[in-house]
Specification:
By secondary structure, the chain is α/β, with parallel strands linked by helices. It has two domains: 189 residues, Spore Coat Polysaccharide Biosynthesis Protein SpsA, Chain A (Alpha-Beta Complex), CATH 3.90.550; 53 residues, no CATH class. The protein contains eight helices and ten strands. Strands 1, 2, 3, 4, 5, 6, 7, 8, 9 and 10 form a ten-stranded mixed sheet that branches. The radius of gyration is 18 Å and the shape is globular.
Length: 260
């Protein structure tokens, strides 16, 4: 069984990035920049395929990596992830321990303000508890993923029309297709804190985009889930825009894509 890390990056020097991330497995790096180029790197007996593309959008970046992937297990990653020594063995051992798993979600250490999850006990992930996992936690059996023809949305995430959410949609598609998805307490590394590529405050666009995302995630239940979301997070998110207005904006986002 082999592991391949699929890295999405923007305006990076690929050789420097390989060393900074402490990559110790084969990898594909998609670097979105101002030109097209390809170079193959050898690093610690591993092969790193480095692609520079003059384009933008994190969903497009991840799909470009998936199209070129060959590893049995693919681990999605970003330019700001620094891996611990032995991460590759940890991933492969977890899949060996759980042959029933199509997908495993791993822990990555992050700053307190960025933390959306931390798994303390191995457990099954379902639709109702899948909304908080970032893409860099995802490791998937490549052939299972390609057989299901599942890719990342081009509408959501950094560089796309709408803000974040491509990770939640991808995970939803995997679960809807019947993937057996598990979360594990195993840690692989840490995220380097940096300015978000998509979050610029709880302004009108944030709530509209969240409404659009909820349409694709929840369909007819989007309105109810919007109310639930604001009840849970309103104290933090509705300091500038009142909760009633935020709900109106989310519903406007839901209506704007109804029928799609």
């Amino acid at each position: 069984m082999t592991l391949e890390v699929l890295v999405s990056a923007v305006n990076q020097q690929i050789r420097d990035l390989i060393e900074r991330m402490h990559l110790e497995s084969d990898a594909i790096i998609i670097n979105q920049t101002d030109h097209f180029a390809y170079e193959e790197y050898k690093y610690q007996d591993n092969i790193i395929h480095g692609y520079n593309f003059a384009e933008k959008g994190v969903g497009l970046s991840r799909n470009n990596a998936l199209l070129r992937a060959k590893g049995d297990i693919v681990l999605f990653s970003d330019e700001d992830i620094i891996y611990d020594a032995g991460y590759a063995d940890k991933v492969l051992k977890e899949f060996e321990k759980h042959p029933e798993a199509d997908m495993v979600l791993f822990n990555i250490r992050v700053g307190e303000s960025r933390a959306t999850y931390y798994t303390e006990k191995f457990h099954r992930v379902h639709i109702w508890n899948a909304g908080r996992y970032p893409t860099y936690s995802f490791a998937v059996r490549r052939e299972r993923l390609q057989a299901a023809n599942i890719t990342f949305s081009l509408l959501f995430g950094g560089g796309a029309k709408y803000s974040n959410g491509e990770d939640s949609l991808f995970l939803k598609d995997c679960l809807s297709y019947g993937f057996k998805v598990y979360a594990t307490p195993v840690e692989l590394g840490a995220e380097t804190e940096r300015e978000s590529t998509w979050f610029h405050g709880y302004h009108e666009k944030f709530f509209i985009d969240r409404g659009v995302l909820y349409h694709f995630l929840y369909g007819k239940l989007a309105g109810l889930m919007a109310v639930r979301f604001l009840m849970a997070h309103g104290k933090v998110m509705c300091q500038e825009i009142p909760g009633k207005k935020a709900l109106q904006l989310m519903k406007a986002g839901i209506r704007s894509v109804r029928g799609l």
